[in-house]
Write a structure and sequence with these properties.
Elements: E1 4-6, H1 49-59, H2 67-80, H3 83-87, H4 93-99, H5 110-116, E2 121-127, H6 137-146, E3 149-152, H7 157-164, E4 170-173, E5 178-180, E6 196-197, H8 204-218, E7 225-228, E8 233-236, H9 245-256, E9 262-267, E10 270-275, H10 281-291, E11 300-306, H11 312-321, E12 325-329, E13 334-336, E14 340-342, H12 345-367
Cofactor: a divalent metal cation
Protein name: Trehalose 6-phosphate phosphatase
GO molecular function: trehalose-phosphatase activity
Length: 368
């Protein structure tokens, strides 16, 4: 991976071989801001690239194996991303600030981004948790009148749709494994039927089974929450007392051991079980570009905005295609394939609004 070691100002196809990757997740319920966290810092706001890679490797998980050591490593990693533990850092905040370098701000470099998009069709991709908020609905609606727009989330598609409630968007839920385009009649729908893609559909019964087993196994642990995200299952630790985390991790591991076709990824206070297919948010982006008719085009300019480690797959695709840009939403140090940054969802909203204004102006000028 050709990741940049990027630090932003302080204050987050087909069936094939199992993928091993750490999946960071975001903390952004429909109604609440997520707390600041640092990726894989055992307590500090910033760590070196090699230390982060080590942590990533420790967190990599294929199916089964590892026993107690594995569970400890999941729990340690979960602990490391906890804001409480960040406070216990041996580094002072001012020391953390000194280490920081800035990924160019997408807002400060708005004109430059627009210049790069000249003559190309902008297509918008937005992560949900940690990137959008319910108050942005009007802005997203305006955005979708200007550009094809997709929401790409780890949550199940129906849930994201319930939060956003805009029929004119594309939705890619379950980390891109459940894609549906706008209904017919939408400006961007090519055929008569909405685009649908569910590359992991054969896993549905298995995921349901796993969901039930995890609910049963964690029901005695206060605060544990198992979320059925249709093509993946998320087990949340957020409300579980820390001393009980290994109990939950043990339950996850014991279930996962029975399903060699499933793998585990990890986010902030969440463990996720998903199919071992080679499909992620990057693949979803490629699929959507293709369905919009931009498969082999040079005149397309995708902009993907996200805060989650799983969004890195999409940033990477853009980098490899040398098309458009990834914009990372983060206030803390991260290795990323994004090209620009925005610090928080309010900045995302400003950026989206500027895009809308820019488009309207360009339209007016074209009519003069
Ligand atoms: O791909 P995203 O849209 O960024 O979704 C990532 C995950 O978001 C949700 O979890 C996050 O929010 C929870 C609060 O609602 C929080 O407790 C958790 O720590 C966060 O990771 C969602 O519940 C997950 O299923 C998504 O994968």
């Amino acid at each position: 991976m050709t990741n940049q070691n990027v630090v932003v100002p302080d204050t987050k196809s087909g069936i094939s071989l199992p993928m091993v990757r750490l999946s960071g997740s975001s903390i952004f319920p429909a109604t609440a801001q997520k707390p600041p966290t640092a990726p894989g810092t055992g307590g500090g706001g910033c760590i070196s690239l090699s230390a982060k890679k080590k942590l990533l490797l420790e967190n990599l998980e294929i199916n089964g194996g590892g026993g107690a050591a594995k569970i400890n490593s999941w729990v340690d990693s979960m602990r490391a991303s906890s804001p409480t533990h960040m406070k216990s850092s041996s580094q002072s905040l001012s020391e953390q600030h000194q280490q920081q370098i800035t990924l160019p701000s997408a807002l400060d470099n708005f004109d430059q981004i627009m210049e790069a998009s000249r003559g190309k069709q902008i297509v918008m991709f937005l992560d949900y948790d940690g990137t959008l908020s319910p108050i942005m609905r009007t802005t997203v609606r305006r955005l979708a009148t200007c550009f094809p727009t997709a929401i790409v989330s780890g949550r199940c598609r129906d849930k994201v749709y319930k939060f956003v409630r805009l029929a004119e968007l594309y939705y890619a839920g379950s980390h891109g494994m459940d894609i549906k385009g706008p209904e017919k009649g939408s400006k961007y729908t090519k055929g008569t039927e909405p685009v649908i893609c569910q590359p992991a559909s054969e896993f549905l019964p298995m995921i349901d089974e796993v969901f039930k087993e995890l609910v049963a196994k964690t029901k005695l642990t206060p605060g544990a929450k198992v979320e059925n995200n249709k093509f993946c299952v998320s087990v949340h630790f957020r409300c579980v007392e820390e001393k009980k985390w290994s109990e939950v991790a043990e339950a996850v591991k014991s279930v996962l051991n029975k399903y060699p076709k499933l793998r585990l990824s990890q986010g902030r206070k969440v463990l996720e079980i998903r199919p071992t297919i080679k499909w992620d948010k990057g693949k979803a982006l490629e699929f959507l570009l293709e369905s919009l008719g931009f498969a082999n085009c040079t005149d397309v300019f995708p902009i993907y905005i996200g805060d989650d480690r799983t969004d890195e797959d999409a940033f990477k695709v853009l980098k490899e295609r040398e098309q458009g840009f990834g914009i990372l939403v983060s206030k803390v140090a991260k290795d990323t394939n994004a090209s620009y940054s925005l610090q928080e969802p309010t900045q995302v909203m400003d950026f989206l609004q500027r895009l809308v204004d820019w488009k309207k102006l360009a339209f007016q000028e074209s009519r003069m």
